[in-house]
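Every protein is a chain of amino acids, and every chain bends into a shape of its own. The protein below has been through that process, and both of its lines are reproduced in full.
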Amino acid sequence: MNRIAPYLAFGFLIALSACTKGSVSGTVTDGLNNAPLPGLRVLARSNAPEMTCQVFESTTDASGNYSFDSLCAGQAYVLSSGDEARFFTGNQEVSGDEQALANPLTAWQGPAGAGVYVLRADGTMESQRTKADVAKATIFGTEQAVRYPTGTPGSWPSVEQGSYLVLVGPTTIKNQTLYPLLESPEVKFNPDREGLTHFSLGQAWLYIGAEIDAKGAYTQMDVELDPSLVINALHGDRAVQYIPAEAVPAGKYAMLTDKSKRTYMFEFGGPAAVPAEEAPAAEEAPAAE
């Protein structure tokens, strides 16, 4: 009788179990339009002690489907995007068990670094820069302060139909505010240096969130933003807010914080800012001396 055979068979079963490979498949959709997302690398990572079990890669097909057919059974994996400019929301944990079907993943486009971007209809993401310094003055004969850009762009960054203004990072989303830029006729301001009764910018000018008439009457103007169209994607320390063109009435806008010394400037295509709760009208300013 061969007494070694049972031990060999037992060892073979252990080795077979250790080498068993799991199969996991699922689908990735684009968070903005729910369409299948083809050509995206999907990574499956685990903390398995064996190097060969730690990282696997798949690529979505034309229908947004991905599959892993060699995951190590019994290991827990976390799925992530292989594109740094995209991240997943939804359940990203899977097991290496055979024939497992993962929950659908939703992919969002947004760089890892904080900033302001415009996402075009063709999928390109364009980083934005501030366009002008911000100045402040008080309307002549009043204590009403107004802010204005010191210049205008040679060509306005546009957010046209099918595009999104994209804010990346929790701090950017929290602090940046969109204001209508409204042109008012030449406005008299309180003097900024000795020897002047008043000063002006010398012509009609754009003001940030303010409408001023020829007599100096001031009205605060807010953006008529449709919050139901604004999309927020959050996962861990990744946060992205998408403001579609149709969420904002057509017009020119500034975007800045309360303490900004410079401002972003955009032109949205599409209906106009509405008055906020009306501020008391300024008294008529006396004529300049």
Summary: Residues 5-18 form the longest helix (14 residues).
